[in-house]
Structure formats: structure tokens, C-alpha cells
Amino acid sequence: MFDKLLYIETFGCQMNVNDSERIVSMLADLGYAPTNEAAAADMILLNTCSVRGGAEEKVYRRLANLRIYKRDGKQQIIAVGGCVAQQEGEELLRKLPYLDLVIGTHNLHLLPDMVRCAERGERRSETSFIDNEQRLDLFPSIKGESRLSRFVTVMQGCDNFCSYCIVPYVRGREISRRSADILAEVRQLADEGVREVILLGQNVNSYGLKSADEPSFAGLIRQVAEVAGIERVRFTTSHPKDMSDELIACFADVPKLSGQIHLPAQSGSDAVLKLMGRGYTRDSYLDRVRKLKAIRPDLVFTGDIIVGFPGETDADFEQTLSLMEEVRYIDLFSFVYSPRPGTKAAELNDDLTKAVKMARLDRLMELQRRHTREICHTYVGSVMSVLVEGEGRLVGQVSGKADNGRIVNFTGDCSLIGTFVNVTITKAYPNSLLGELSN
Ligand code: SF4
After folding, report:
1. Whole-angstrom distance, CA of residue 392 vs CA of residue 188
2. What domains are defined for the chain?
3. How far is residue 110's CA from residue 153's CA, in Å, rounded to a whole number?
4. Long-range CB contact pairs, 16-22, < 8 A, 24+
5. Cut 0.70: pTM above it
6. Are the beta carbons of 329 and 304 closer than 8 angstroms?
7. pLDDT digits (tens, 9 = 90+) for 138-174
8. Quick check: 368 and 374 in contact, CB under 8 A?
9. Within 13 Å, how many C-alpha atoms sit on residue 206's CB side?
10. Strand blocks (E) in 170-242
């Protein structure tokens, strides 16, 4: 029975998106229903990200905007979660008298209790780190409305300490979840009607490496793919240095494994990769890509590139463009480097001007637009298997995802939602495909 409204804004990566889903699920038990209107909400939660510079300032600005909704006479709760909460902790409560809750990345299981306290007017911050197996028991299962595609957390944290990244400091060390628990959650989701699962973690490729009793990530994928009712398996995100031959082989012999992989290169220059502490070279990255393409020629790649890392020369940047030419990503998340306090890279001499960084980013994005266009045009005339997930943008259309992750819209009846259908692609746009039902 819902008698209160919860408004969440989620920033950053899929881990935060997944955490927000868990928060909605947990707070449903306290009577909170999600709303898109902050003004109407009884509780507002910002699930924050601190991967890029200026994140804290953005959170402070957003909170200042949201405080106007804290209405007289009714106790509205304002909360901050995610990486900025983890970093700032009590300090946020001290600085912002209208803030009620600060919840760190390892403390989600405490949220219902904290909300009950906040409803009584108590302010609280919980940001303790749990860097042992105890954390494994604190993954609250998602309940509630069944959907067709769901994230399943398989590991949390990261041990890699790339020189520019704040994640190991705000998400803690890498811990893999027990495979038995993962499989139980996947079976439960399949029973609820979920057809696609996305195995989620900061570096899923190193799943299970610390435990002799658990399968490797490749082994886990094979077990998940065997769960009856699950028709498609995806994963994110992958560290290239942990992309094993065993995992690559899954793309050949696990038919349910999606034809899209996110494999962040970050740079195409060995000198920059070394400064980033990424643990692989340009050649070893491209070797993984070539092996994947050889084993599954229709596989599409998405990636991340950081432009303007300290010390990046024109020649280094050209190396990145040439790596992109070889990989030919279908989509790329590209960012201009900004230092994160507390990371090693923040101590490097960041001597590139903003103009140089922006000019490089423009060139890179232009190249990426061309690749996206060219790859997507090759799909026109082909037939794709599409999981229909909902209504399309136009009346009479439905929309779904192809095996390679592209959104496909086509004329069709809502009774198709939840089924896999074959669609002939008739037109390619940068972010979606248009097609006709072909069966
Ligand atoms: S692998 Fe590197 S970039 Fe990715 S979360 Fe870990 S430290 Fe950050």
C-alpha cells in the first residue's frame, strides 16, 4: 500500500542506475511509490557520481534548487546517496541544514531504517566501508514490478586504481558475489518474466578470481545462460586486461550472449596508457579486439576514451584516432580529462589548454559520428532478432533492442511486448533503427 512519494535523480554509471532501482524496491516496503515530480515527493534522493570534476559542486547546486520543495508543515526528507555521499559523509549534513540523510555506497541495506528515523526528524549519515565477505550478504534483491531486462550485480568495487579514477576510493575493493546467490536471483527474475539480464560490476571480467570455490566470469555466464526463461545475457563493464581467452570463447559458443561488448580503451597511446595505470598496451588491447572479431564477426564494440590526459601529445592523440579506426566502435563515451582530488593523476602536470582538449574532443567525436553512421547503414536490409520492450515513439509503433543493443522501432501491436521477433531494418538513424516486422 503506497501512501508516500519518492523522487530519485540518478547520476553516473549503471551501478548507480541499479542502486536506484534497489532503493525504489526497498522503499516500496515503507509505502513509497516512485514519482517524476520533485515538488510532489515526500522524499527526494540524489544518487550521485563523482567520476568527473566538479561533481560535489553540482550536487550542492542541485540540492540548493531542491530545498525549495521542503514544505512547511510537512516533513519532507532530502537524502544524498552514491559516490559524493561516500566521499563527503557527515560534511554534507554539516554544510546543509536542510539535508536529512547521507547514505554511502556500502550502506544501502540501512536505508529503510534511516528513512524511518528521518520520518521522526532524525538526521543521519552512514558511510562506513565494508571490505569483507559480509558485504556479499547486503545485496538486497529487487522486488516489485516485473520488467523484461534487468541488471544483476555480480561484483562490487575495484582493485585496479587507474590513476585518474576515484571509484576504488568510493566503492571500495573488489568483492565478488556468490554464484549461488546470483543464480537464485536470475531464476527469480526469470520467474517474474524477465528475458534479458545484464551482469553488472565495475570490472566483471575479474569476477571470482579471488575465490577458488567460485567459477570464472566465463563460467558464470555459461551458468546464467542456462537458466530457463532467460534468452539474452549482457555484461558491463569489462577491463581489457582481464578479458581472458576463456571469456572470448563464450562469444562463439554461448548463443544467448549478446552481440555487443563494452571494452573501454581510454587511449590508443602506450605512453598515456602507462600514465593511466591501465595495465595493458595498445597492442594487447587490439589483440583482444581482433580475437573477438575473429570469433564473432558481427560483434559490435562500445568504449570509453579520455581526451587530453596530462602529457597527451598530438602524436598520442593520433594514436587514439588510429585505434578507433581499427576497432570501429558503434558508440563511444568520450570525455575531456578532469582531475579528481585524491587520485594519482591529479598530481600530474595538466599542461594542456582547454582549447586544445576541446579541439581534440571535437575531432574524436566527428570520427565517431562517421563510424556510427557507417556501421548502422550496413544494417539496412538485414534481419535482426528484437526483444520487444514497449511502445515506440510513434503511434502504432513498438520498440525493442536488437541482439547488438541497438534500439529498433517498427509498426506492431502491443501484444508483441515481451516476445522476440524478427525485424527487417529499413532505415538507420544515429541512435536507433527503423524496421518492419518480418515474421
Ligand atoms: S578499472 Fe580503473 S577506471 Fe574502472 S573502476 Fe577500476 S579504477 Fe576506475
Report:
1. 28
2. 4-126 (3.40.50.12160), 132-258 (3.30.750.210), 291-378 (3.30.750.200), 383-437 (2.40.50.140)
3. 18
4. 16/47, 16/48, 16/49, 16/82, 16/83, 17/151, 18/151, 18/153, 18/200, 19/47, 19/81, 19/82, 19/105, 19/108, 20/47, 21/142, 21/151, 22/108, 22/140, 22/142
5. yes
6. no
7. 665 565 555 899 989 899 889 999 999 988 888 888 9
8. no
9. 15
10. 175-176, 196-200, 232-236
CA distance linking residue 8 with residue 21, whole number of Å: 10
pLDDT at residue 134 tops 70 = no
Q: Is 420 in the pocket of ligand 1 (CB under 6 A)?
A: no
Over the range 253-282, which residues count as b (16 or more CB within 10 Å of their CB) and which as e? ebebbbbbbbbbbbbbbbbbbebbebebeb
What pLDDT is recorded for position 135?
Answer: 66
Closest ligand 1 atom to the C-alpha of 237? Answer: 4
For the chain, the residue count is 439
**What is the helix (H) or strand (E) element at residue 180, kind and residue range?**
helix 179-191
Pocket test for ligand 1, best of 15, 16, 50, 162 (most atoms within 8 A of CB): 162
- Identify any residues that bridge with 424 across adjacent strands, giving them in sequence order: 383, 436
Assign 62 to helix, strand or coil: helix
Pocket test for ligand 1, best of 171, 239, 267 (most atoms within 8 A of CB): 239
Cα 136-217-408 angle, rounded to 5 deg: 105
The amino acid at 416: L
